[in-house]
Amino acid sequence: MDPNRTPFQPERDSSSVQTDFTLDESPKHISLLALPFVYLFQPSRYMKHKAVNLSTAALFLIIWVSGASSVLDSLQSKQFLGQSMLSYSKTWAFIFGVGFGGGILRGLMIYGIGGLWFRLRLRMCGVQSGEWQETGRVYMAAGIAKHLVTLGVIFYAAMTFDDFDDYMQNEGTVSVFVTLGLVILFQVWSSFTLYAGVRTVFDANRVWAAIWFLVLPILIRLVALAVIIGLSFMQGVAVDPQLDSPSQFSSDSFEFQYPSNWSVSKDDAIPGPYTWVQVEPFLADAIIEFNIEYIEPDHNSIEGYLEYIKDSYGIDGIEVESTLERMGKFQGQGTKYRGMIEGTEYTLNIFQTLLRDNVALLIYSIAESSIEEKIEPGFDHILRSMKATDPYTMTPNLDRTYTMMQDELSFDIPSNWWLTVTPEDDTTNEDGSTQPGGLTVEARTPGYGSFRVYIYDSDLGPRAELGVSINAYSDTGRLIDETAMDEWNGYVGFGAQGKYLSDSQMDWNVTILVVPLTDGRIIEFQSVYPDDYAPMFIPGYDLIEQTMKVNTNLIPSP
Q1: What is the CA 188 to chain-centroid distance, rounded?
Q2: Residue 420 and residue 256: Cα distance in Å, rounded?
Q3: How many CA atoms within 13 Å lie on the side-chain side of 319?
Q4: Which residues contact 398 (CB under 8 A, 6 or more apart)?
Q5: How far is CA 478 from the centre of its chain?
Q6: CA 144 to chain CA centroid, nearest Å
Q7: What phi and psi values does residue 366 have, to the nearest 5 degrees?
Q8: Is this structure's pTM higher than 0.85?
């Protein structure tokens, strides 16, 4: 028996030690395109011919990529568990800067510490130190696939989401599980690849190599996966809201603090006063949402919201439990309900408080009844710290503006106007012909006036001959005066401007211009606003006029 052998090392014939790492046979060339398939389906060939022949530059590149992947995965995992390392910047440029900047140091740590552990395991398998020349190359080459998968998912997210925060808050949960699943899969496969390298390059005992490089690594990764999933659910459900250092949210309409282990989603798609924000405990079946809306007199928002929530969440068997006169620090009116979703009881609160006449803050919360008490401190903290700003001020906010951009046109609007964009798909007629779709863009003031743009297919013959009449665009009211026009903001067509008196005895100013486009469609500009509110509408209207850009390929040359 070898007196220097450790208890973990099997006895073996030292004469069989293989020290020629270039191998006797001449390696066959493996093309770059074939390399992934060789890695996946011929790991022994990959390790035999590629790993041991890595150049120093290729090894350094693998070290860097592995380190960057590890850093990015750490940022993602901590954000996933509500322990963000990024308190001041979550742009993709910053994320990748941190990942690839810190990847060099992290990669060297992986190479050094991981390589040391790899050599220790080789020692346990009976490999002598004289055979260790290529351990670093073999170890790093075996694990590159799992790091490339992580980078691939992050790069895909960067092309899909505006920033890292948007990725984690909106689709991050699913994406993290997908990432985690792919990484675990390729980590397991990297164990097979490393085992193939150990058996191919080194003279290791088969049984001990299988134990140290297959059985134990796979078991450890399965246990780690179970722990991560368990911690994730504990973070969302079992762990109380983290309020020691709450996170801060602010927008044009809302400002509040929320538990640092919860997440926020907000309305970024359509600018303007119709804005909402949601806060939800991570992975817990609960949510609280805030909306500021312009409501009509005598409008019952509670009933309208109840129907919306029933349709959205599929709640059945709703019963009224109590009425609400206060929610957090807000006084108003609301109702507390109980209902069932797929056999599980939920608690639903719907509440409304007026910020001023016809402008209301609407709040609803929904939570699985069994966790209601656990998440209630988080909801209470949000409501106590909430500051809601009425965005429906009549004076256009020109200090902050939004840009509406479509393929055909773009323009800016004040931040306290709201914007709707309604595309219409192409339709097929009964005779099989295709009717081109259209586009409606509307920028509206808080309750009074709007600027609209329509782009659609139309027969211009009769309208070109008869002109455009304001009267045709008023369902009610009486035309006061009308003047034909053929130009607006440099765009030439046919139209009209003037006033009509509505049934409510309010004078409305109207401007309409129809411009034929070179592709057979028309573009129509239309503004409507009460004469009494002209000072509140015209500054925003002027902003639109100054920034309006239409695809010049669509406008015929004069």
Answers
A1: 29
A2: 27
A3: 5
A4: 414, 539, 540, 543
A5: 49
A6: 28
A7: -140, 135
A8: no
Quote the tokens at residue 122: 């080789």
- Give the up-direction half-sphere exposure of residue 531: CA atoms within 13 A in the CB hemisphere: 11
Rg (CA), the chain: 33
- pLDDT (tens digit per residue) in 392-413: 677 788 887 888 888 788 899 8
d(CA 210, CA 126): 13
Q: Among candidates 298, 285, 293, which has minimal Cα distance to 344?
A: 285
The pLDDT tens digits of the residues spanning 215-266 come to 888 888 778 777 766 665 554 454 578 888 899 988 777 889 999 888 888 7
Contact assessment for residue 262 and residue 238, using Cβ atoms and an 8 Å cutoff? no
d(CA 170, CA 55): 42
Distance from C-alpha of 551 to C-alpha of 557, rounded to nearest angstrom: 12
Phi, then psi, of 416 in degrees rounded to 5:
-100, 15
- 460 pLDDT band, cuts 50/70/90, is low
Helix (H) or strand (E) holding 182: helix 172-201
Using CA atoms, how far apart are residues 293 and 362, in angstroms rounded to an integer? Answer: 8
Neighbouring C-alpha atoms within 13 Å toward the C-beta of 491: 26
